[in-house]
Amino acid sequence: MKIAVLTSGGDSAGMNAVVRSVVKASILKGCEAWIVREGYEGLVRGNKEGETKDLYPPEDKSQSGTLHNLRFGDAELLKDGTGDSFAIGGRTLKGRYIIRVGWDDVRGWFSQGGTLIGTARSKTFRTQEGRLCAAYNLIKEGIDALVVCGGDGSLTGADVFRSEWPELVKTLREQNKITDEQVQEHTHLRIVGLVGSIDNDMSMTDLTIGAPTALHRICESIDNISSTAFSHSRAFVLEVMGRHCGWLALQAGVSCGADFIFIPERPPTGDSWEDEMCAAVHRHREIGKRTTIVIVAEGAHDKTLQPIKPDYVKDVLTERLGLDTRVTTLGHTQRGGRPCAFDRILPTLQGMQAVDALLEATPSTPSYMIGIQENKITRIPLVEAVVMTKAVSDAIKERNFEKAMSLRDPEFRE
Ligand code: F6P
Question: What superkingdom does the record give (predicted)?
Fold first, then answer.
């Protein structure tokens, strides 16, 4: 089997560990390992004609049964800024987005931040025409198994791609782009999703790849800010990422003893959150705190669904409590950098599970998302996880916060 792996959507620490794990597990199980550069965009662009063959050393039969003939060399992204070149095993590959890799290509990747194979939020793949190109490019390389690592949007894309696959193959045959033989070989696409996202916003899994590192990064920043806040007896309002999910904000607040936290899932309920926040901060100051930390999740809003803006929170603290207040937006420092230990372990275990799931897949088994639940690596039907994630965000939009929380955690009690 030929197994390709791609990373998609916003990057997260641990994505390189996913690629490393999928590549090594594929090779160990006797499969060919491929990477797709620049997420779904790379699938749509594919490889220019005539550049597919003769890139790899001829197989050394005398070494068969060892990994020797699979060691193609160290892959390294060219920093030429064009995004169109990729150097691998000493060869510079232009116009190639779907590339076979070997054991050594991914050596040491698990300690690297970001994603070395690139990622994108592809607009083209959202169209059926784009997905038709993607299917053609995969079939051209003989690939019929795909591991997608990304957030809920990317996994939704994976689900659509898989369900549309027979129709795409039929259209490609009608357009004479593929042969009857290729149609027979690619009747269905095996696809598995791994959740790479700092937001930890995917339902039916306890933790997403990259979330622990981002949380760690936020805690470090709050520690740094706290020391300067202490010196000046200041207040700081910190905006953290997370899109529509308050996990990062909530966990960071608990880890660092924040005075007040705003999250989308639980907007302040009283008539005035300004009064509520000021009362809490005032109380803490009264008992001797020299620092004030207020955390605002980027998706936070009040009970009428108006966004809560850090600058406005700052004005409230300054004007009502007379606190010398600053705003810090942590931004992409939360997303970049080396993964923490757990963001190496989780992708390593999930990558191995993903390859097993692909090998065991049949046309009648669902596509799986690999998750972690109660410390066990699990397989969850991708479509169920995608539907449940959407149900949670719809419940938040409808301001039905209790429903949102109980969908995320069936044991949740107010
Ligand atoms: O989904 C990950 C995430 O970092 C969110 O927390 C944030 O809202 C968004 O991506 C930022 O996206 P971009 O890097 O495109 O600005």
Answer: Eukaryota
Q: Which long-range contacts does 392-395 make (Cβ < 8 Å, 24+ apart)?
A: 392/201, 392/203, 393/201, 393/244
SS3 76: strand
pLDDT digits (tens, 9 = 90+) for 144-174: 899 999 998 999 999 999 999 999 999 999 9
Q: Residue 76 contacts by C-beta under 8 Å, 6 or more apart in sequence?
A: 87, 88
Distances (CA, A) of 249 to 14, 153, 233, 234: 20, 21, 23, 20
Question: Nearest to residue 4, comparing CAs of 175, 261, 191?
Answer: 191
Element (H, E) at 160: helix 152-174
Q: Which of 89, 104, 93 is closest to 38 using CA atoms?
A: 93
Kindly state if the Cβ of 210 falls inside 6 Å of ligand 1: no
Task: For residue 43, give Cα distances in angstroms to 89, 376, 394.
Answer: 21, 32, 30
Max Cα-Cα span within the chain: 79
105 is catalytic: no
CA atoms of 213 and 35, how far apart (whole Å): 24
119, 208, 239, 243: which to mutate for ligand 1, most atoms within 8 A of CB?
243
> 396 in helix, strand or coil?
helix
Distance between CA 19 and CA 114 in Å, rounded? 12
What span, in angstroms and rounded, lies between the C-alpha atoms of 235 and 306? 23
Give the span between the Cα atoms of 104 and 33, in whole angstroms. Answer: 12
Give the type of residue at 157.
G
Host H or E run for residue 294: strand 292-297
Using CA atoms, how far apart are residues 51 and 346, in angstroms rounded to an integer?
36
pTM, rounded to two decimals: 0.90
ipTM of the complex: 0.97
Task: Report the separation in Å between the CA atom of 93 and the middle of ligand 1, taken as the mean of its atom positions.
Answer: 30
